[in-house]
Amino acid sequence: MRKELEKSYNPDIEDRIYKNWEEKKYFHAKIDKDKKPYTIVMPPPNITGKLHMGHALNNSLQDCLIRAKRMQGYSALWIPGTDHAAIATEVKIVEAMAEEGLTKEELGRENFLERAWDWKRVYGGEIINQLKKLGCSCDWDRESFTMDDDLSRAVLHVFVKLYKKDYIYRGERLINWCPECKTSISDAEVDHKDINAKLYYLKYPIIGSDEFLTFATTRPETILGDTAIAVNPADERYLHLIGKKVRIPIIDREIPIIADEYVEKDFGSGVVKITPAHDPNDFEVGLRHKLPIINVINDDGTINENGGIYQGLERFAAREEILNDFKKQNLFVKIEDLNHSVGVHGRCGTVVEPLIRMQWFVKMEQMGKRALDAYLNKELKFVPEHYAKIYVNWLENIKDWCISRQLWWGHRIPAYYCEKCGHINVSESAPEFCEKCNHTGLKQDEDTLDTWFSSALWPFSTLGWPEKTPDYDYFFPTDVLVTAYDIIFFWVIRMVFSSLEQTDKLPFKDVLINGIVRDDKGQKMSKSKGNGIDPLDIIDKFGSDALRLTLMSGNAAGSDMRFSYEKLESDRAFLNKIWNATRFVMMNFDENEPKAGQLMAEDKWILSRVNSLAKKVTENIDSYELGLALQNVYEFIWGEYCDWYIEMVKPRLYNKDDTSRESALYTLKEVLIRALKLLHPFLPFITEEIFTTIQSDEETILLSKWPVFEESLNFSAEENEIEIIKAAIKSIRNIRAEMNVLPSKKSNIFIVSQNEYIRNVFEKGKLFLKTLAHGNDVIIQSDNTGIGDDAVSAIIQDGVIYLPFAELIDFEKEIARLEKEKDKLMKEVERVEKKLGNEGFVAKAPPALIQEEKEKAEKYKNMLLQADAQLNKIKRK
Fold first, then answer.
1. pLDDT at 560
2. What share of the chain is helix, strand, coil (3-state, %, to 5)?
3. 3-state class of 780 per DSSP?
4. Which of 254, 358, 614, 695 maximizes the CB count within 10 A of its CB?
5. 473-524: per-residue pLDDT in tens?
């Protein structure tokens, strides 16, 4: 018995469909030597909460690519997973513990880690369920987590390998420190925000004189760590002071006056205090001049024992105290307003403090060069290309990477310190004794690795590397990375240099950048603004397909998009349109499978159109124009299939004695199935429900064969005929609409053309003009014989359409319409003639293009003559 669709579309079908896909393992990619592999690794969401709209867009794009390639015959693998997100997750857990009155220290490391794993089981599981609700066709058998045993072994392997190669070292250097999270962070994790700040002018007494040296600073609290004061060697104002000393009054320390080109003569007073322990530029000056390094700030942002009487004060409170003390000693000069950039921790928003700390670093010069060369040699491509500038700029200015974090949640650094000789033993597993002195007293480093250290290995560690697994051999390298533009330097670069270093291969050949989903006003969504939208709320109400359609239609790579409920409602209407159109088609089926039989012109037209659509959409997807691909399918289904073809064949469907009825049914089904397949990567659920209902040859659209262009379905002659008829019908509809003619009012339609081909086209298409253009009779002739003077007209290519119903016409409006059309045609003629008169265009353009422009000119001139004639005719009445 033939299956039927429910009377109305309901997105509740999605859960049932996804469950069936999962149970039947349709997403599982097999190693098949007869197929080409196609691999995508999912940017792993952090286990810190729910997915947001950005995740919804990013994963919809990935799902679209993987579904299309799966249907095209690839062994398509999409590796899902989540990231332990060390800092972000630890902050969340600490916050939750605080509500219970607990601290990390009270709980202890082991108990804290138990809590962290519990957190992962809860929130990691929630994220996976959210991805499934979105329709993600991931291979869940290969789901990974950055701290899984296999992936952790890969992390340790890489650390040891890089250490032995002398690419990883431990040293005391200036790093970015977050006083809130109490950990070091990399340069990439520092957000720079412009703020309204103050520039404080203070002065130091010059030793051995009554003079003072005025300097400007935005951070008076770091005065406590000053070890020099600098001027520009070309600044004549201060040449006589170079080599002398000043006294820091509040701590009674003498420091030298040095000359360094780092100082800008025109900024502030042209004098800069140098604090090597708390400023990266000062640190470099300090190295050049061999200055002492005095750290005055504790891990929690308070002043340490080197701060004298200010010890224990929070850094910004100390600032105020120091300013007050300068005022008391008459050493305070003035304050200026200043807008400048301040580094804040991207995770918690705390102002970052540069500190001298003993940390672990990765040398980046050689690995960074390989990553840069990969792009410069055109082995790696960015879509859109302009995002490569971020990649190149970061690599050209790369610094050594601080990889140690003062956290408990994460991969613990595999370094073991000998309690006897102090030797550092680096090993993938805990050594039993020191490799240098054989002492058994070893203590592991307390720090963990930067989250990005492990996620940098994601494209290959998820496939079993460093073991030479079958998955790794077959599926690696991956094909494309789909990611947001804000983590190009966080993650993309790290994956590229890590993969080149560890596997000697690029991790992927293409990087597809998606933009940000903004609210309907163009603002970035955020909790603080209250404009965030939970994608699950949208899915619960509208379904995943509607959400995906709204996110992907019209979306261009790298461009931000606006999300609106108005568009969502419109997109849901498209789903209803497909559903209702399918129900209409199926209502006309009988128990027998319809045969092609003798195809009519309109059948060949729509078959030819869907055939061309397959080629166009495939090219769109291959070039990552996913929004354009979706738009092309959308317009075909709604416009050409539903609004034109179905309406054209209704008379054949309603007449069961019509010998062409079966070929119409065959075409309706064939074209719908092809269109559904092209739509499936974008809207997986509704296409699956309709596909499995309308046919029984294939059990799921997900594994069905992707439509390809077939020369046997290239009916260009019939396409041209139907397009001519469509243009005529549109012209008639436009005239009737402008004159507010009711659909019930019918009239005779005259087609006048001296072109025999045009007359033949309309002779075969009379029925369409009657049913779709409200015609009583259609009269086709070569001249105006029998057409009354009261007829209104529409100009078509090589002809004119006349509608003789003067009683419904407002002649003034008709004159205005024709004059408007005449003006439009004059502009077109002028534009084409100007183009053909351009010597540069004629010299460089291909002959075919020049000929095309000449034909346009001739066509517009003929249409202009016809418009002018019609206008003169009406004016004479």
1. 86
2. 50, 20, 35
3. strand
4. 614
5. 999 999 999 998 877 777 999 999 999 999 999 999 999 999 888 887 888 8
Tokens 């200055």 -> residue? 291
3-state secondary structure at position 532:
coil
Q: Provide the pLDDT for residue 703.
A: 97
Strand 747-752 and strand 799-803: the pairing is antiparallel
pLDDT of residue 787: 86
Residue owning tokens 């102002």: 351
Task: Return d(Cα 813, Cα 819) in angstroms, integer.
Answer: 10
Q: Give just the sign of the alpha carbon dihedral 206, 210, 216, 222.
A: positive
Percent of the chain exceeding pLDDT 70 equals 98
Q: Residue 544 burial (CB < 10 Å; 0-12/13-18/19+)?
A: buried
DSSP notation for 344-395: EETTT-PBPEEEEEEEEEE--HHHHHHHHHHHHTTSSEEESGGGHHHHHHHH
Q: Do 282 and 356 form a contact (C-beta atoms < 8 A)?
A: no
Consecutive H or E run containing 55? helix 53-71
Q: How many CB atoms lie within 10 A of CB 667?
A: 25
Predicted local confidence at residue 1, as pLDDT: 43
pLDDT tens digits, residue range 565-586? 999 999 999 999 999 999 999 9
Spatial contact of 463 and 503, defined as CB atoms under 8 Å apart:
no
**Which residues are CB-neighbours of 357 under 8 A, at least 6 positions away?**
172, 173, 175, 177, 184
Answer whether 509's CB lies under 8 Å from 379's CB.
Answer: yes
Residue type, 642: C
pLDDT tens readout for residues 384-410: 999 999 999 999 999 899 999 999 999
User: In terms of Cα–Cα distance, which of 813, 793, 797, 748 is closest to 775?
Assistant: 748
Going by the DSSP 8-state scheme, the letter that residue 240 receives in this structure is: G
Cis amide linkage into residue 233, ω under 30° from 0: no
**Up-side HSE of residue 654: CA atoms within 13 Å toward CB?**
7
Q: What are phi and psi for residue 449, nearest 5 degrees?
A: -85, 150
Amino acid letter at 23?
E
What is the pTM (predicted TM-score) of this model? 0.85
Place of tokens 């209902």: 693
The confidence score (pLDDT) of residue 8 equals: 93
Whole-number pLDDT of residue 738? 78
Q: Which two tokens stand for residue 152?
A: 């952790």
Confidence of residue 806 (pLDDT cuts 50, 70, 90): low
CA angle, 680 then 685 then 691, to 5°:
65
> What number of CA atoms fall less than 13 Å from residue 59's CA on the CB side?
29
Residues 173-214 have pLDDT tens digits of: 888 888 888 888 877 778 888 888 899 999 999 999 989 999
Give tens-digit pLDDT for 248-264.
999 989 999 999 999 99
Tokens of 392: 């190149």
Q: Name the nearest CA neighbour of 242 among 254, 229, 259.
A: 259
Nearest to 457 by CA among 44, 806, 797: 44
Counting Cα atoms < 13 Å in the Cβ hemisphere of 638 gives 14
